[in-house]
Design goal:
Length: 375
């Protein structure tokens, strides 16, 4: 290796180590991807929230509930007093499944023909398919146990048939079509990525070209400059939302059961977070490359911890708590509920409030920092 080549290599390493901010981001992002993919990238669903409507309230019904509790696939999250209450919890996403035990369960169990209903939220096919198999398997195992007890007690002087039948029903997505789950998620990911990345790079590009100083000396106020920079990307993002919904509906058959006006209004609310992240990144970065890497530092956790690819219920508890800090989590729940379930604003109010808080805080902090940077 000649001296000229060594000099070029040495010079390049010096340039890399001088840009410590970019170097730090380059070193941190692989570690972040490793942990996110190692812990969040899993479809092993456990502890699916379950609502129980036990109309029997008998030792036999409690034994059935114990069978579901014993398996780690379900966790009883609520005991409801009516089917309407159970439906409300499923619509809000507070539970993913519901078990309905009829009043005559104990009597019919003695006759060997008891039936229970198991309702599943099909808006997330990954969780629903796992829960569907688990619900049927747990029911069969429980029935086999009861049957074995009868054989041991009475011999085979009766019909050998399962005494309990679990009848499963999948709501909102009966065929468990993955596109119904992924396409609404794509809307959230594109909204966040477009607004954050393009806003960050657009502002930094002005600084790199030296035109930001020209804008500062004009009569334009700082808030006018901020709105002028982000409004075009807001309109483009909303256009992309309508475009994806239209293509998803007409080509992939994704239902649009909710109000399109409400979807666009709440999408605009979500854009505050994406725009705020992009604007904040632009105040930190000095180059477009730094701006891109800074945005990716927030984009990667959002994609993996928001429930876009992998069920949040399948993640470790620590990552589930961290996911509450991701605005994309709340928007994905909102867009999927509106498109697939067709409910009103009341069912998603908690997510809307959380999204509003995140949007105002992030955009407010970014705008203040951007204004100070201009001053």
């Amino acid at each position: 290796m000649n001296s000229r080549l060594l000099s070029i290599i040495r010079k390049e390493f010096i340039q890399i180590f001088r840009d410590r901010r970019t170097l730090a981001l380059i070193l941190v992002i692989p570690i972040m991807q490793l942990f996110l993919l190692g812990y969040a990238a899993t479809n092993d669903v456990r502890n699916v929230p379950l609502a129980v409507f036990d109309q029997s309230l008998s030792p036999e019904s409690r034994a059935l509930l114990d069978a579901y509790r014993a398996a780690d696939y379900f966790s009883v999250a609520a005991a409801v007093g009516s089917e309407a209450e159970m439906q409300t919890l499923i619509e809000r996403g507070e539970v993913k499944a519901g078990l309905i035990i009829p009043p005559d369960y104990a009597a019919r169990l003695k006759n060997g023909n008891a039936q229970v209903a198991f309702i599943l939220d099909g808006s997330d096919p990954t969780v629903a398919s796992t829960a569907l198999s688990a619900a049927q398997l747990i029911g069969q195992n429980h029935a086999t146990g009861i049957l074995a007890e009868k054989i041991a007690r009475n011999g085979q002087n009766f019909k050998v048939q399962p005494p309990v039948e679990v009848r499963t029903t999948v709501w909102y997505n009966p065929d468990l079509i993955s596109a119904y789950f992924m396409i609404p998620g794509v809307i959230g990911m594109i909204l966040f990525a477009i607004t954050a990345i393009l806003t960050a790079t657009a502002v930094v590009r002005e600084r790199e070209r030296g035109t930001i100083e020209q804008l500062i000396v004009t009569p334009i106020r700082s808030w006018e400059l901020v709105i002028g920079k982000i409004l075009p990307y807001t309109l483009l993002a909303l256009f992309d939302t309508v475009e994806i919904i239209a293509v998803g509906h007409w080509w992939f058959g994704v239902p649009v059961r909710g109000s399109l006006t409400l979807i666009l209004l709440l999408s605009s609310l979500f854009l505050l977070s994406g725009l705020g992240v992009g604007l904040f990144a632009s105040t930190i970065a000095n180059t477009q490359q730094e701006a891109m890497l800074t945005v990716w530092m927030t984009l990667l956790p959002s994609i993996f911890l928001s429930g876009f690819f992998f069920p949040i219920d399948a993640m470790p508890t620590v990552l589930q708590w961290i996911s509450y800090l991701m605005p994309l989590r709340y928007y994905l729940n909102i867009i999927r509920v509106l498109l697939l379930k067709g409910v009103g604003l009341g069912a998603i109010m908690n997510d809307v409030i959380a999204l509003t808080i995140f949007g105002v805080v992030i955009m407010g902090a970014a705008a203040l920092r951007f204004r100070k940077r201009l001053d």
